[in-house]
Design brief:
The chain is of the alpha/beta class and 331 residues long. It has one domain: Leucine-rich repeat, LRR (right-handed beta-alpha superhelix), CATH 3.80.10. It is 15% helix and 24% strand. The chain has six helices and 22 strands. Strands 1-4-6-8-10-12-14-16-18-20-22 form an eleven-stranded mixed beta sheet. It has an eleven-stranded mixed beta sheet with strand order 2-3-5-7-9-11-13-15-17-19-21, with no helix packed on it. About 5% of the residues have low confidence. Bound molecules: 2-acetamido-2-deoxy-beta-D-glucopyranose (4 copies). Its main location: membrane. GO terms for molecular function: kinase activity.
């Protein structure tokens, strides 16, 4: 070997190696920072097992510490043992304030699930850097503040559940980029936004729960703005919001070819209902507690429909079916 090359190796290689994290991997240092936010852990599962791995110096065999701490409760590693792919800490009664910025840069993280704890904190734009995230479930906690727009950079996202928290502010734009998003559950928060705009940004969402928020506006939209969502959605729950104005037009409603459940109850929708003739898969329709008027569409009572539950109570309908409507359940 060329002497200069040898000299180069001797002089520079050790220092180059020195730039690698000396004892813990990037993922481990992120999770150790994340753990600092957990102030109370009644089961002891997280605090006790999430301890820094022994530095390699203490092991005379010279083997490096494994990059992914597979012995930590709730942490799963990829097949090579190098990266953390999942953090699952559901229902442990954890309390504290999560600093989501600590997780930025966990490039292989596919799942983050903290559902059913007493955790608080705000989402930060840096969450948008979790490029591999498929599943984000923060439901049933005390998280608050707006949903940052950079969440729309999570292109791998399939399942987003932020339900039952205190999220507020305007629904972010950019959801039209989340082509893989199949389940979006934002139930019971304080989120705002024009429902027409929100629905027109949905692409392939099959399960959509926006109930119990402050979405406003009517459902009368241009069909082309609704066609992506209408093609995909099976479950749509828009109940208990501040919707007002008209229901979907006949032309739009016809596009919802896969729709099985539609709940728009507890809003202030007015005007007449369109024809439901083409919605052959519709099993549940709830539109109770609105200001809808006119005749109840007759096809809702035909056996050609799959309808098993109908609630149109608390409206201003007229005509021959009206006496059945306070409330009407057909099983
Ligand atoms: C040292 O590393 C080897 C190989 O990874 C492992 O089997 C052994 O348990 C380690 N010993 C200690 C004291 O950590
Ligand atoms: C979201 O989380 C809540 C509470 O944990 C759960 O009941 C609900 O089924 C979840 N939504 C979806 C779409 O899985
Ligand atoms: C829609 O959501 C509300 C409250 O969030 C819930 O009570 C209702 O059962 C849901 N509707 C359907 C049809 O699942
Ligand atoms: C439909 O989409 C177009 C273009 O994106 C927009 O300009 C228009 O306001 C939308 N219409 C409704 C009713 O949302």
């Amino acid at each position: 070997m060329d002497l200069r090359l040898l000299l180069f190796y001797f002089l520079f290689l050790p220092s180059a190696l020195g730039h690698f994290p000396s004892s813990v991997s990037h993922d481990v240092s992120c999770l150790l920072e994340f753990k600092k936010g957990i102030l109370s852990d009644p089961s002891g599962l997280v605090i006790s097992s999430w301890t820094p791995p022994q530095p390699p110096e203490s092991n005379h065999s010279g083997a490096a510490a494994p990059a992914c701490p597979s012995s930590w409760n709730g942490v799963s590693c990829d097949a090579s043992g190098a990266d953390v792919v999942s953090v699952f800490l559901d229902g442990l009664g954890l309390r504290g304030e999560i600093k989501f910025a600590t997780l930025a840069g966990m490039r292989s993280l596919r799942e983050l699930s903290l559902s059913g704890n007493f955790l608080t904190g705000r989402l930060v734009p840096a969450l948008g850097s979790l490029a591999s995230l498929h599943r984000l479930d923060l439901s049933g906690n005390l998280f608050y503040g707006p949903i940052p727009g950079r969440i729309a950079e999570l292109w791998s996202l399939v399942h987003l559940n932020l339900s039952c928290n205190d999220f507020s502010g305007d629904f972010p734009t950019g959801f039209q980029n989340l082509l893989g998003l199949k389940e979006l559950d934002l139930r019971s928060n304080g989120l705002r936004g024009h429902i027409g705009l929100v629905l027109s940004h949905m692409r392939n969402v099959e399960y959509l729960d926006l109930s119990g928020n402050e979405f406003y506006g009517g459902l009368l939209m241009e069909s082309r703005n609704l066609s992506s969502l209408a093609n995909a959605v099976k479950y749509a729950n828009l109940s208990s919001n501040k919707l007002s104005g008209s229901f979907f037009s006949s032309d739009s409603l016809r596009l919802f070819r896969n729709l099985e459940v539609l709940d728009v109850g507890y809003n202030q929708l007015s005007g007449e209902l369109p024809s439901f003739d083409s919605l052959r898969n519709l099993k549940t329709l709830r539109a109770g507690k609105n200001q809808l008027s006119g005749l109840i569409p007759e096809e809702l009572f035909r056996s050609t429909m799959s309808l098993t539950e109908l609630d149109l109570s608390g409206n201003r309908f007229t005509g021959k079916y009206v006496t059945f409507c306070i409330p009407l359940h057909m099983i």
